[in-house]
Each structure stands twice: as structure tokens, then as C-alpha cells.
Amino acid sequence: MHGKSIAEHVKCVEAFVKDFGSERIALVTSGGTQAPLEKNTVRFIDNFSMGTRGATSTEYLLAAGYTVIFMHRESSLLPFSRHFPSLFTMLHVEDGKAVSSDAKLVDNIQKSIHYRNRILFVPFVTLDQYLHLLEGICTVLEPLHERVLVYLAAAVSDFYIKHDDLPTHKMKTEEVSLPLSVVPKNLQRLVEDIVPRSFVVSFKLETDESILVEKARKALSSYGHQLVVANMLHTRKEHVVLVDNEKEMHIRLTDKNKEIEEDIIDNIKERHSDHMANAGTAQ
Ligand code: PAZ
């Protein structure tokens, strides 16, 4: 969290959107959450997500003209730098300076400089921080109404141990107890009470394909938002299903030189434009 409290992060968002100039703004959530197993946390529940979907989508959102609040798990992947997991080995020293002539590296550094005034990084680590930040940031964005796209790509824990049930100290192996509770779903409240005019996209990950679309439909009808991007764990980089109240649309990656997020964002931008137009928002 870079030493900032939730309230301080929310204040940064307020300052960032105060002079908001572009026509659209996206709140992107990215990466997994930690749910502690002890008050003095040594162990926690976590998941596989490195934030590839969120970081990649953010690059395409910026290119599509969005300003982005990038709410990401600390130390997960970031837009532009995500392409270089071993940056250190790409540099050499010339006249006491670290340099590289790698064209892709140069291009991505230039892009990240180009967009730096249009992206705000807001880190989180735990499930609790994630939930509070999401609510706080959405509250700040509400006055921007239909111009807001909420893009919930983070893999949020479904289980946690309530604060009162957490042992204070490192759990002893002979006293293992995991009184897990199900994380209360906050999406309905978000959609109905906090950002009722925004375009809200949630993600649904499954490992059993036979229930994927049914689960996405259930989320749509429970929370009342606009779109679910449904994906399978092992094919998430090549295939997603966009599920709305009327139909399903499959996006399949056929060109190996492309990233599926380019098509996802193209499609979502169009849907968001319709949402704004239907509400009479100038574009
Ligand atoms: O971080 P990543 O790119 O490896 O994975 C992305 C994802 C699978 C976490 C995302 O596309 C997603 O489905 N998020 C929601 C997960 C869920 O709570 O169902």
C-alpha cells in the first residue's frame, strides 16, 4: 500500500479526477487478494492471478482514449513494464549509465511516459483493503455518471476468516483451524447504490466449462450490471465469452501476434459508447 491509508488513496483519486478532462474514465481492478490466516499475518489465502488481464487491458484502454485508475495488487504486473520480467538482463552500462537499445523496451518506456498523466496507480494487498478501496473510489467516481467504466478483472478471494475468528499469533500446526466464511458479495450494492449510472463489467473465472455461461448469467441477474466477461482458467488468453442480458458473444484469438484484450476493449468501448449515448451523455 506504499504506506498510504485507504482514506489517503481515496483522496489521491479525488485530486486525480478533479480536473478530469477526457470524456471517459475507467476503474480497472487487477491481481489477486490476500486473506490473512492470522492477525500477525504469516500465512494467507491467495490465488494465481498476476494481473496480466488488468495490466494488458489498461494499455488498450489508454490507447482507446480512457483515463485509467489502475487499482492493482501490489507487486502484480503493471502496464508497459509487464512486458519485461527480467529488465536487469536487458541493460548494459555505458559512461556510467544503464542503457538499452531494445526497441520494444524503448517503445514501452515512451508509451508509459506519454500516458503518465492519464493513469493513477492505486495499490492494495489484502481482501479488506480491496473492498474498502473499491467502495471509496466508486463513491468518488459517481458524479461522473455514464462516463465511468468499472472493469473488475481482479481475482477476489471468495473465502476469508472473520477478524474475530483470526488467531493473534502464527497458527500452531497442532491447532490448525480454518473457520472460513464466504466473502459478502458487494457488487449489487455497488451497482445499485454507489455507481448506478456507470457501465459495470465483471469477470467470471471457472474451471468447469459446463457451468461458465450459467454462472455469468447468474451474476448478471443477481447484481444488475451490464456485462460479464466469462473465461476458463486454462484458455483465458485465447477465448472469452461476453455475456449480457440478451446474448453471448465469443471472442477467440486467431492472430498469435495479438492479445485478446485488444478485442475485449474494442468491444467494451462500443458498448460503453451506446450506454453513454442512451443516457444522452455527450461524446
Ligand atoms: O491475472 P490473470 O491475467 O492471470 O487472470 C485474469 C483473471 C482470470 C483473474 C480474470 O480474467 C478474471 O476472470 N477475474 C475474475 C475472477 C473471478 O473472480 O471469477
UniProtKB/TrEMBL annotation:
Coiled-coil positions: none
Signal sequence, renumbered to the chain: none
UniProt superkingdom: Eukaryota
GO molecular function: phosphopantothenate--cysteine ligase activity
GO BP annotations listed: coenzyme A biosynthetic process
Location of the DNA/pantothenate metabolism flavoprotein C-terminal domain: 142-269
InterPro entries for this protein: CoaB-like_sf, DNA/pantothenate-metab_flavo_C
PANTHER family cross-referenced by the UniProt entry: CORNICHON-RELATED (PTHR12290)
Family note: Belongs to the PPC synthetase family.
Record-given protein name: DFP domain-containing protein
Species of origin: Pristionchus pacificus (Parasitic nematode worm)
Native organism taxonomy: Eukaryota, Metazoa, Ecdysozoa, Nematoda, Chromadorea
Designated gene of the protein: WBGene00092097
